[in-house]
Each structure stands twice: as structure tokens, then as C-alpha cells.
Target: Putative transporter
Amino acid sequence: MFEWFRFLFTPTDEPEMTQSLIVLFMAISVGFFVGKIKFGNISLGVSAVMFVGLFLGHLGFTMNSELIQFVREFGLILFVYGIGIQVGPTFFSSFKKEGLVFNALGVGTVFLGGIITYIIHLLANIKIENAVGLMSGSVTNTPGLGAAKSTLIEIQKQLNLPSDHFSDPAIAYAITYPIGVFGIILLIILSKSFLKIDLAKEEVLLQEKNKDSENKIVRQKCRVTNPEVFGKTIKQVLKEFNIKDVIISRQKHSGTIVVYSPSLDAVIDTKDVLMVVAKQKDITNFIDCVGKVSTDLFIESEDDLTTKIISVTQKTATHKTLAQLDLYNQYDVKVTRVIRSGLEILAQPSLELFYGDTLMVFGNRQAIAEVEKIVGNSKKILLEPDFLSLFGGLIFGVIIGSIPIMIPSLPVPLKLGLAAGPLLAALFISRYGGVGVIHSYINNGAIHFMKDFGICLFFAAVGIKAGHGFYDSFIENNGWMWIYYGCYITFIPLTLLVLISRFVFKLNFYQMVGIMSGSYTDPAALAFSTKYLDSDIPNQSYATVYPLVTISRILVAQLLILLFAS
Model:
């Protein structure tokens, strides 16, 4: 009677579609449960899906060959695209500060790992595809593995090689993956002890270091007491004292309780109170030139004028500058700051608005209501998924990844592939707010779902496929030796990164830990470090190096395959 039920859960070499889906869902659901189990402060997280997939594959469960390839590639595309959209804005802005040094350290680690991998390939006589699998697992880099597998398939097609000509790098990847996860965590702990890090001191030093480059937009009240500015317009004062990147959102004359939003032509009188919006260093500079800090409470009154947060959801308002919208002259409403992907940006007239931007505006309630009609402010629209933008962006990424780059002596053209292509597309789209009808806004919940869903699909497909013959391959290739070789790839570049970061570039320990996790694209290590250090500071340097490191790892994996696969 229940034969159909037993059939669904019985391993078979040629599974039907329903059986394949059951295996896929089992790997993901059980893997997610296992990933939540903590060993001290450490948990496997989503990577547990791969190990459950390996176990199911070892038991004989499998999936339809075409379906498993689709699931693997589609999952990888979703994952890297979500990463690109999420970190794109901070990635480009970081190059104005220390991002160049951070990325140089991260990319240097990648290429050193590639050199060590090639040496292992030569000296240990390990096939290059297995060596690349060792490398990808030892640094927990999933996109690199995906790029290697895609390149091997491309070579097989171009040269008409049998499907079993190359070994599956996913087996070596699975063997060394735990070394990558726990190795970096071990080095974080050891480096803290070896370098004798005082976390409280490191935090103070970082705050002092970032005091002048703090990007947070704040507001402060100022009492005008400098006789040199009496009777002059705000525009004249800013020009004479060479003050930039400052917005005066409110003004109140001495002896009154009337608050209004001044234009640049508004005249400043004796003992006026101004509300200044800018970065703290620019506010301090302005107040030093104009007067002193004020404690006036009337200027914060919301009786006649109010502050409101509105979101850009009208397509007619996107890709227009604040000067083009001209909200102040038309509606007497002033935009003081713009929040984009978690970043606060001062509302300069030349700032171009993107779909999904959040504006902080100040003005009359009725006027703000009119502005909302132009800007949009539809929370419902922002919550609804825009599949045109999402899948349009993915098409853009697949096209970029499919462009053949002809390099002499290589058996097939070099391609960015389905990992680097969507990542580059997402970075480009997030940097410019969109391309045509494709925009970059995806709400945070959707981004996290897309990333986790994508990586679950990829890990499940890789694990299930690699699980077949995993034990035999481990014994045949002396898996303990592969783990031994993987330790070289994990520890040597990372140890040099720690020494150079600390003793050459004098980097803060919090930043260094973020670079360590980002260089190995290891979210598990990042999660551990934020709890271990009780700080979110490592997240910033992790996001800074992640995109360029990921692209570098993809290219290194592809080049090793293209140059030395035979």
C-alpha cells in the first residue's frame, strides 16, 4: 500500500524527478538543522548542507544529472549576485580610505595560495583539478570551485573528451573544507595571543584613527556669535570660510520661537540658532567659524515644521539629482541626508537618487505630502519583489560571464563564468543604481533569502554528487595527505597576512580579523570573530575585500585548470 512512499526514499542510480527533489530537499532541510548545532562558539552554518549532501550521496542517493547541474549553477548565481548587491556600495566607497591596502593584502593572499597549490601539484603529483579542489576547500571558496567545474566541462566539450576524463574537484574540496573553516578560526585565536592584543586599547586606537574620517552624518545646534558673519547670507559665509559639505536645515532668530528652513540666500543675524547637518568634523569646523554650540530647544520644535523619512519609489524620481527635483524652491522642503544600502550620504544638490533610497526631509507637513507624490514613498512597492530587475540583472551577469577572452596557448577561451559574471554585474548595478529598467534595490530580507537559498542549492548539489565514491576516493588518494597539503594552503598565506598587516601596515586587530575572514571568503569565521571579539567592526573590512577576493579566486582557479589540466 505504501510502496510509492518507500520508492521516494529508496536510493537508485536513475532517480525520477520527484525522487531527485526529495533528495535535494532532504539535504537542505537536514543540513540547516545540523548547521544550527553549536560547538562552543562555532557552528557549521549553511555549509552543513554540503556535508549532509555528502552523507546522502555516500548512502547511494542521487539526483537527475541535468537537474543537479542546473541546481548547482543556479544556486551559485543567486548567491554571488546577492553578495554583489549587498556589498557593492561599501566596496566602491572603501577605496577612498584604506580599501586599497585591504584589497592588496587580500588579493596577495589569493595569488600566494595559487602558487602553493601549483607547487603541491608538481611535487605531490596531484592532478591539477584535485589540487584546485584542495585550494578551494582550504580557503572555503565556493565560487572558485564552481568556476573550476565549469571550466573543466568547457574543456571536455571543446576537446571532445570523455565525461570521466577529469576528476571531480568537489571531492578534494569537501575533504579540505573543514580545514579552511576551523583553520582560520584557530589563527584568529592564536594571533590574538601571539600579538598580545589588548582589545580595549585596539578599539580606542581605531576610534582615534577614524575620528577624522567618520562618515556618519549627524546634526548639531549652533548659536551665531561671530560678528564677521552678521548680516551675511549662508551662501556668503560658506564661501568666505571655505566650508563645504554642510547643510543648514533649520534657522531661528534670537527672541522668537519661529523655526523655518532657510535657503542659501537667508541672512544670518546676531544670536541666530542654526541646525547644522554634516559629518562631525565639518560641523565642528563650521561652528568654530560661526559661533558656539547651542542648547536652544525651540529650534527642535515640530509644531509647524517636521522631519519625515520618505523612500524613492517613483521611477520618474530615480536617476535625477536633488537639484533637478528642486524640492526646496518648489515646495519649501529641504532634504538633509540620503540613506542608501545602510550608508548615510549628505544631501548635496549634485547627488543622484536611486530607486529605494531613503530621504530625510524637513518642511511643512502639507508640503511634504506633495513631495511624497513626486518621490513615491510606497512601502508596499518596496516590499514586493521586482522580478524584472532581479532576473534582468542575472541575465546581464550571465552575459558578462559568457564573454570569451582569447588568450594564446590556452586550450579554450578564458571566461569569467557563472560566478564572477553575476558578481561583477551586481557590483556595477549597485554602484550606478541600475541599468535601464533594472534597478539595484532589493530589501534586506530578500537579499539574505537569495544568498542563503542560493548557497544551499549549490552545497546540496555539490555534496550529493561528490558523495558518490567519496569514501573510495578518500582512501584511493590518501585523503589524510590531502588534508595535510590543504594545511599549507590554509595557514601559510594567512600567517603572512597577519604578520604583514600588523608589522608593516600597522593595521588594527579588528580590521585585520575582517580581512582574514574576507580573504578566505569565510562567513563562518566572520560570525565567530564578531562574537569572539564582541564587535561588528570586522564586518566592514570583510565587506571591503570580499568582492575583489572572490573574483581573484575565480580567475586563479580557472587559470590553473586552463594552464595545467591535461
In short: The longest helix spans residues 65-94. Residues 466 and 564 are 23 Å apart (CA to CA). The chain has 23 helices and 14 strands.
